[in-house]
Specification:
This protein has 89 residues and is an all-alpha fold. Helix content is 97%, strand content 0%. The chain contains 1 helix and no strands.
Length: 89
């Protein structure tokens, strides 16, 4: 190979390397975006699990309230009956 052929080969290699470098830069940028999305995804998963836990807690609290309400209603009915019996005598 002569000097001119060597220079052309070197230029071709430089062009190929430059092309690959640009591709690597693009891949790195895409990976950075994916890492950002991964962080967002994890944050959304935590937020969603907190919402589900809160909803479950509210459901249990609501059930407890209605259970207590039923007990109070039952007590009120019994007291009313006792009071009516006392007035009848």
């Amino acid at each position: 190979m002569n000097r001119r052929g060597s220079t052309a080969a070197t230029q071709n290699i430089a062009i190929v390397v430059t092309g690959h470098t640009q591709e690597f830069v693009q891949i790195k940028a895409k990976m950075a975006k994916l890492e950002e999305f991964d962080g967002l995804k994890k944050s959304l998963e935590v937020f969603t699990s907190e919402i589900i836990a809160s909803r479950h807690e509210r459901t249990l609290m609501g059930k407890g309230f209605f259970d207590q309400q039923a007990t109070l209603t039952d007590h009120e009915l019994r007291l009313t009956r006792i009071e009516l019996r006392g007035k009848q005598t």
